TrEMBL record:
GO MF entry, a single one: oxidoreductase activity
InterPro entries named among the record's database cross-references: NAD(P)-bd_dom_sf, SDR_fam
Keyword match Hydrolase: no
Top-rank taxon: Eukaryota
Native source organism of the sequence: Mycena rosella (Pink bonnet)
SUPFAM superfamilies named in the record: NAD(P)-binding Rossmann-fold domains
Name under which the protein is recorded: Short-chain dehydrogenase/reductase family protein
4Fe-4S among keywords: no
PANTHER family reported for this sequence: RETINOL DEHYDROGENASE (PTHR24320), RETINOL DEHYDROGENASE 11 (PTHR24320:SF283)
Keyword entries, A-Z: Oxidoreductase
Similarity section: Belongs to the short-chain dehydrogenases/reductases (SDR) family.
Length: 318
């Protein structure tokens, strides 16, 4: 048996994909947020070299086409399917789920990478705060609706997976999810960065709760991808907030003096986690001990689950 690969801060998606090519081979994977110059695109590009099918999603089909062309230019044999998905809209999520569920193929891995810009207070079509809706509620509903396709991928030797791209920023600011304003957003209480911190806390709590409730039928994980200068950090509405934290300098570019930035190709994909459901990863390694206390509380995870069910108007059971 070959030794397990050793990953670090500098590990790239290319290296991880190569190391686990045999595990990725034949899998069907759906990744949200796959525009060029993003970590979702980089994950799709690498996984497409080995997977049976990679579903790339976004709310803009022209941008999805650019991603598809770029992937196929490098991997001509890649089986890419474009899917319009607006995670800020509950009807939009349901429409996308109908498309996936109409296909007979199982879904082995669901990667929740998409996130809303870190910007001013904004309500969605469902009257939810935009960051919370896009980063948590939409992914929660999508996971619930795609559960039949995910469970169909299970075999005696394989447990389907859901991965949430969270952030170490869940520990910043107030951090703890403000349950009082989830269903009824309050512009007066809104703080741009803290809304992001809370959304990332929700990702970690949800991954742990999925693993607990599924009782081994579905393994969910959350991870910190590192500071990466992607298209989200370059959006006009995000720049001021990132400057305020010091992550971006006055010129709007990464502040390398204060923060350690990664390049886009760095990410994680590790099949040795089957016995660690609900784990949180950092630098391609389990780092659950680094999760903030307020984001590792089972009672908070259960409460968040219940409130989110009420928001989507559906019960999420296994």
């Amino acid at each position: 048996m070959s030794p397990a690969p050793i990953f670090s801060f500098a590990t790239t998606a290319e290296e991880v994909g190569t190391a686990f090519a045999a595990e990725i081979k034949g899998k069907n994977v759906l990744i949200t947020g796959t525009s060029l110059n993003g970590i979702g695109f980089e994950a799709a590009r690498v996984i497409a070299k080995y997977a049976n099918l990679v579903v790339i999603t976004g709310y803009n089909d022209e941008r999805l086409k650019l991603s598809e062309v770029a992937i196929k230019k490098e991997v001509p044999t890649a089986n890419i399917h474009r899917l319009i998905l607006d995670l800020s809209s509950l009807p939009g999520v349901r429409k996308a789920a109908v498309t996936i569920n109409s296909q007979p193929l199982p879904l082995h891995v669901l990667i929740h990478n998409a996130a809303a810009p870190i910007g001013p207070f904004k309500l969605t079509v469902d009257n939810l705060e935009n960051q919370f809706a896009t980063d948590h509620v939409g992914p929660f509903l999508l996971t619930k609706l795609l559960l039949p396709r995910l469970l169909a991928a299970a075999t005696p030797t394989y447990t389907p997976r859901v991965v949430f791209v969270a952030s170490a920023a869940h520990a910043f600011g107030k951090g703890i999810v403000d349950f009082a304003v989830l269903a009824q957003p309050d512009a007066e209480k809104y703080e741009t960065s803290d809304a992001y911190f809370q959304a990332k806390s929700a990702n970690i709590l949800t991954a742990a709760e999925i693993s607990r409730r599924s009782k081994g039928a579905l393994n969910a994980y959350s991870l910190h991808p590192g500071l990466i200068y992607t298209n989200m950090a370059q959006k006009e509405e995000s720049i001021d907030a990132l400057k305020a934290t010091g992550m971006l300098g006055a010129d709007g570019l990464p502040n390398h003096e204060k923060w350690d930035w990664k390049t886009i190709p760095q990410a994680a994909f590790d099949p040795s986690l089957n016995d660690k459901p609900g784990a949180y990863l950092d630098n391609c390694a389990v780092a659950s001990d680094g999760v903030a206390v307020h984001t590792s509380d089972p009672a908070s995870a259960e409460k968040l689950w219940s409130i989110t069910e009420k928001i989507i108007g559906e019960t999420f059971t296994f």
